[in-house]
């Protein structure tokens, strides 16, 4: 079984053997991996999209129409993210260990805008939908750290006259970040593992099909089968904090 195969390669004691035989692994994560850390997912019955209309808070048009509402939506989520009770869980920690073992044969592509992967110890992380704790200039695109609630009047330091700042978030209709790097890693991957994502949002939901076309072994780890579950060769249902450590350790 593939699960045992990945496990036995990773548990090899000898570094040289590992370096030559380690598979290259691309992991795609979604909101489900952070659910047990206390961050709401989007599409659950108690999810973020139950309380907010997507068009109002997660589109460029929504921001243009009501920047106050959009800034308030993201500021509330930022305040939650930096609160002391929000911590990486065992699934995040297992991925940090996997990166330790695989080094540059590992890439973590996350749709999540939280920083829990980094806080667990991952360094090779692409935030394809942006980052909650960053803001960027609406004109130059220059990215800065979020340093407290962003008011609609806040302006950048890069333009003259200074321009409004916006959340560093990829909204619907906007191009996800670092797509070239992601596509290349998927083309070279031996394993493609999707964790905690519903498969509703493209292009991320289409990665499994590309990975398979390029010959990767594809694995879904999710609470329930996703919208694109049929595209995966191997599936394990359960809580991320249980199935992720079980699968990769
Ligand atoms: C657990 C668990 C536990 C729970 N353990 N599991 C092709 C076809 C149709 C439409 C399109 C298409 N290509 C593009 C589109 C348009 C659009 C799109 O996909 N629309 C669909 C809704 C149909 N895509 C876009 O607009 C994207 N841009 C784009 O394609 O640009 C192309 C372009 C071309 C040319 C010019 C310009 C552009 C951008 C998408 C941006 C997504 N943004 C959001 C919000 C922003 C961030 C924020 O505010 O936080 O990103 S939407 C939201 O959904 C967020 C997420 O990253 C994303 C994915 O959600 P995710 O992570 O899957 O969460 P959930 O809640 O859906 O699922 C959680 C899962 O976890 C569930 O399955 C649970 O069961 C599970 N779970 N607890 C394990 N403990």
**Count of individual helical segments:** 12
The CATH class assignment of the largest domain is Alpha Beta
- Strand content of the residues, in percent? 15-25%
**Helix content range:** 25-40%
Bound molecules: ligand BJW
Give the uncertain stretches in residue-range form. none
**Strand arrangement in the largest pleated sheet:** 3-2-1-7-8-9
CATH topology of the largest domain: Rossmann fold
Give the overall average pLDDT. 91
Q: SSE string, helix = H, strand = E?
A: HHEHHHHHHEHEEEEHEHEEH
Q: Which sheet architecture does the biggest sheet show? A: 6 strands, parallel
Main location: cytoplasm
Subcellular location: Cytoplasm
InterPro entries: DHS-like_NAD/FAD-binding_dom, NAD-dep_sirtuin_deacylases, Sirtuin, Sirtuin_cat_small_dom_sf, Sirtuin_class_III, Ssirtuin_cat_dom
EC number: 2.3.1.286
Summarize the structure.
The chain is of the alpha/beta class and 249 residues long. The protein is 37% helix and 18% strand.
Give a structural overview.
The chain has 249 residues and is α/β, with parallel strands linked by helices. The protein folds into two domains: 1-39 and 87-129 and 176-249, Rossmann fold (3-Layer(aba) Sandwich), CATH 3.40.50.1220; 45-85 and 133-169, SIR2/SIRT2 'Small Domain'. It has twelve helices and nine strands. It has helices spanning 2-10, 15-21, 32-35, 48-51, 54-57, 60-65, 67-81, 90-102, 116-120, 179-188, 207-213, 240-248, and strands spanning 25-29, 106-110, 125-127, 130-137, 143-145, 165-169, 191-195, 217-222, 234-237. It has a six-stranded parallel β-sheet with strand order 3-2-1-7-8-9, with helices on both faces. Strands 5-4-6 form a three-stranded antiparallel β-sheet, covered by helices on one side.
């Amino acid at each position: 079984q593939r699960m045992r195969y990945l496990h036995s390669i990773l548990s090899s004691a000898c570094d040289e053997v590992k370096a030559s035989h380690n598979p290259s692994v691309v992991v795609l994560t979604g909101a489900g991996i952070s659910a047990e850390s206390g961050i709401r997912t989007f599409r659950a019955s108690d999810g973020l999209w139950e309380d907010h209309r997507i068009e109002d808070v997660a589109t460029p048009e929504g921001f243009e129409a009501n920047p106050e509402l959009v800034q308030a939506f993201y500021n509330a989520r930022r305040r939650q993210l930096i609160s002391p009770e929000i911590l990486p869980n065992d699934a995040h920690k297992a991925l940090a260990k996997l990166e330790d073992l695989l080094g540059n044969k590992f890439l973590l592509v996350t749709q999540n805008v939280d920083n829990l992967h980094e806080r667990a110890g991952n360094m090779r992380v692409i935030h394809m939908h942006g980052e909650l704790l960053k803001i960027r200039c609406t004109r130059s695109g220059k990215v800065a750290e979020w340093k407290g609630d962003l008011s609609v009047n806040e302006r950048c330091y890069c333009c003259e006259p200074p321009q409004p700042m916006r959340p560093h978030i990829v909204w619907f209709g906007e191009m996800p970040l670092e797509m070239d790097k992601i596509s290349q890693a998927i083309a070279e991957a031996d394993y493609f593992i999707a964790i905690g994502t519903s498969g509703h949002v493209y292009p991320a939901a289409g990665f499994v099909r590309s990975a398979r076309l390029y010959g990767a072994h594809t694995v879904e780890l999710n609470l329930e089968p996703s919208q694109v579950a049929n595209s995966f060769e191997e599936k394990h249902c359960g809580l991320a904090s249980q199935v992720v450590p079980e699968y990769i350790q």
